[in-house]
Amino acid sequence: RVWEVRGGVVTESVVDWVADLGLAPVTLTDLRGGDPQHNAGIVLELLDGKRGPVRETVLLNASAGLVADGTLPGTADGTLAERFRAAMGHAERSVDDGSAAGVLDRWRKVGV
């Protein structure tokens, strides 16, 4: 369930992440991290193109922010599932084209 506030109106939607977005079911075990070095390795693998539950979860979380912002094409109009699909495409492209890795590199250089 997702509650969205637009124009002062709260709308409840049910999005089936598997059926509506084509995501595979994910368990907590699939997302379990470890120590900082292990977790950093997971991030680097994700940015290097590794597919799987971590990537899908990261893309879904990024998509939520993009839908909330609503400024990218396809993220402001349509059903919530349609907007999430558009946002997933934007998030996926930023990982696949190296933009997300570039942001991490810039953060490393400035010590964030």
| Domains, number | 1
Q: The biggest beta sheet, please?
A: 2 strands, antiparallel
Share of helix among residues? 55-70%
What is the count of β-strands?
2
- The overall pLDDT average reads 95
Percent strand equals 5-15%
The strands making up the biggest β-sheet line up spatially as: 1-2
Morphology = globular
How far is the first residue's CA from the last residue's CA?
34 Å
Structural class category? mainly alpha
Number of helices: 6
- Helices and strands, in order, run as EEHHHHHH
Q: What Rg is obtained from the alpha carbons, in whole angstroms?
A: 15 Å
Runs with pLDDT <50, length 5+?
none
Concise summary:
The protein is 60% helix and 9% strand. It has helices at residues 17-21, 28-31, 36-47, 53-69, 80-96, 99-110, and strands at 2-6, 9-13.
Q: How would you describe the overall organization of this protein?
A:
- With 112 residues, the protein is mainly alpha-helical.
- It has helices at residues 17-21, 28-31, 36-47, 53-69, 80-96, 99-110, and strands at residues 2-6, 9-13.
- It has one domain.
- It has six helices and two strands; from the N terminus they run E-E-H-H-H-H-H-H.
- It has a two-stranded antiparallel ribbon with strand order 1-2.
- The N and C termini lie far apart (34 Å).
- The relative contact order is 0.12.
